[in-house]
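Recap from last week: sequence in, structure out.
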Amino acid sequence: MVYQSDGDFIICQTGKDTLKTNNIKKTKHVSVTIPIRKSFFHKIIPAPPAELHFTSTAEIRPKDDEKARMIYSKFLKYSDKAELPQDYIWISIKVPNKITTFGVVVSLLKMRKPLEARKTIFLEE
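Predicted structure tokens:
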């Protein structure tokens, strides 16, 4: 899954009838984990990926949503021409004020020590 943000919202896409989509339709509350591979060495050194963790709210946006396409196009320059599955939708996730990280801004070796690898970040409003 690809996550792309404009700073206020994170956009990703999924199938129209997936469990994820149905759960967001029932309750807008979501828990998100975004894995991050830090470098080539991260693939060969036995360490878990760096991660961002947070809870927030999300909403389903239709596949022709212009704002979602604009945000996503930062990642996919040709998103207007991309052939995406016919039954996809966008998920728009509000960026929260508090994000918990694992392995972000620490060396790969420190990632083996969970207490040193965990951090909490508070974003300004």
